[in-house]
Specification:
Chain lengths: 119, 119, 119, 119
């Protein structure tokens, strides 16, 4: 199984199955899921705490560091998918709509190579 | 387009296209992406700040609140996908491996309906 | 030493001494300190992860839970004081100015017992 | 009023007065305060989002950027003090005990100029 042959719905279903097998849906209210997502996002960030730009590059090529980052990113995504499951939100729709809205706000020509206009 | 007919790879490609059209890959190092993911996770959490359990339920059924949550969740996912893109990590593999590891740690029978053994 | 007989400046000096003794000021740029503060804030939040309101109350009276919370809150404050030290910001001034500004925004009579007007 | 002539207890009392004048203590349970602290820590971090080390230095000398950082740091501290107030925790004690424990863990000679031993 890889990103090429897995639909968002299939990956969401794997997360849902894990939750259902433990009868954990009772804990999965949107507030506590958002709290958990925040905690996991901070654990992901911890992988890069204090690292200077060149150390970030070195870590990006280190197999052990990459495995830790993949594990923390997975935790973030599991809670993100759990929140989408709990609220019955379509992820593809939400992401594509946000990209469209951001595309209007940050037009490709005005923001070419920069993310602030005052630079 | 919906979660049923969109692969993870397709959604990642949409995010990559948005980044490439603006020549923003130069900013997308793993540390700054993790910082941004953390900031967006906190903005998602802000939707539920101070809400009591019953108010969380009400918000979960409110169309405007749901749209705001979907928008903030999309921001989280866009940075999560950007990080996977920047590091060339397979999301389906990472999530399924993490679910398998968590499944061994939290066996379905011992953790049925609870997430701590001392309860 | 207690909050009654310790000035903000004295507590900031204790943190500065700890940093100086290890020659760690070189790492204490405002961005990495803010990253660290965010990570510690999430670790503090982790103490209350998944807890329902009545469980939060129980934890608030539990000596071991209180000691863990005090330890995590200390980590948050150590980075907050480190940031004030690194940027030479006066904490008392910043806090009192913010309270004054918030006091104008949230007048005591209109926001009596509520933090949103639409409630 | 400045950090030199303000005790921790006095600054905590100013925060408590602000809360009491609005009858907001009812909302100030430790979980929601930790959630709020996390959100404010992320807003502080947002001031440095995407900034390269040299841009962080420039921002550190910019008067407007410094004022924004002071304002966000104040928000973090107001919630940290509110949590200490809600749980009746002594901040000076917690910080000094944590510095002592960290001092034993990170001895000044072994960790001189570095925060990891494997470097």
């Amino acid at each position: 199984m890889s990103d090429n042959d897995t639909t968002i719905a299939e990956l969401r279903a794997s997360v849902q199955r894990f939750v259902d097998e433990r009868d954990w849906a009772q804990f999965h209210n949107p507030k506590d899921l958002s709290v958990s997502l925040c905690i996991e996002a901070a654990e992901l960030l911890e992988e890069f705490q204090w690292l200077r730009p060149e150390e970030v590059e070195t870590a990006s090529r280190d197999l052990q560091a990459r495995a830790r980052v993949a594990g923390e990113l997975a935790d973030v995504l599991i809670y993100a998918f759990s929140l989408a499951n709990a609220l019955d939100l379509d992820i593809a729709t939400a992401v594509l709509e946000k990209l469209a809205a951001s595309g209007r706000r940050y037009s490709a020509d005005r923001y070419q190579g920069r993310f602030r206009l005052d630079e």
